[in-house]
Amino acid sequence: MKIVFILCDTAREENAGAAARAVKTMGMDDLWFVRPLCDHLGDRSRATAHGSLDILEQAQVFASLEEAKAEISMLIGTAAKKRNIREDRHHVDKLPEILEEKRGMIAVAGIAFGGEESGLANRDLDLCDLLTTIPMIRPYPSLNLAQAVMVYAAHLSKISLNLAAKKDLAPTGDELLVVREKALQVLSDVEIPSDHIIHRRIMERLMLHGP
């Protein structure tokens, strides 16, 4: 299972570089940018990356999260607070367990982070299969983008360590993606629109518990 960190609407080079450093420090290699508002290869980004320039230089850049999602089996959003009655926010410490349960079904898992000012836009949240959050005793001052990436990377490094220890075989196919597409077709056939709460709940449960 490959884990990709996706930064949407990143405005500060320093955060791009610090995120690359966090990803590499925790033993992962993939950092993508969606609609970046800064130069992720700029001088300040490179200075902050400090030994992680390879992560920045090989980073993919996408025009939209929807475009990036086409290459991902399961897209996981991050959000500091609940904005509506949509799906539950799952705590980040539960995320390794959720992904471990789907080992062998997922080829690529993506963790999406929003911009520094307001987090993931609603249109991006709607694309996510699951939404997660970092529980905090005090909501303010909140974690900045690079700090949030480090927290997620630290938790998700457990998966890399477990996979290395068990030496499991890689998945033969993107099974979860196939299951998701079939479920979407069934929901379409019975005319349940994608913005209906039942549609959202069914897809969330599928991502959590599988077929």
Structure, described:
With 211 residues, the protein is an alpha/beta fold. It has one domain (2-209): SPOUT methyltransferase, trefoil knot domain (Alpha/beta knot). It contains nine helices and seven strands. It has helices spanning 13-25, 43-49, 53-57, 65-69, 95-100, 122-125, 145-166, 175-189, 197-209, and strands spanning 2-8, 30-34, 60-62, 74-78, 89-91, 108-113, 130-133. The protein has a seven-stranded parallel β-sheet with strand order 3-2-1-6-4-7-5. The protein is globular and about 55 Å long.
Q: What's the N-to-C terminus distance? A: 18 Å
The gyration radius over C-alpha positions equals 17 Å
Biggest sheet strand line-up: 3-2-1-6-4-7-5
Number of β-strand runs = 7
Binned strand content: 15-25%
Order of helices and strands: EHEHHEHEEHEHEHHH
Output mean pLDDT. 85
**Helix-residue proportion:** 40-55%
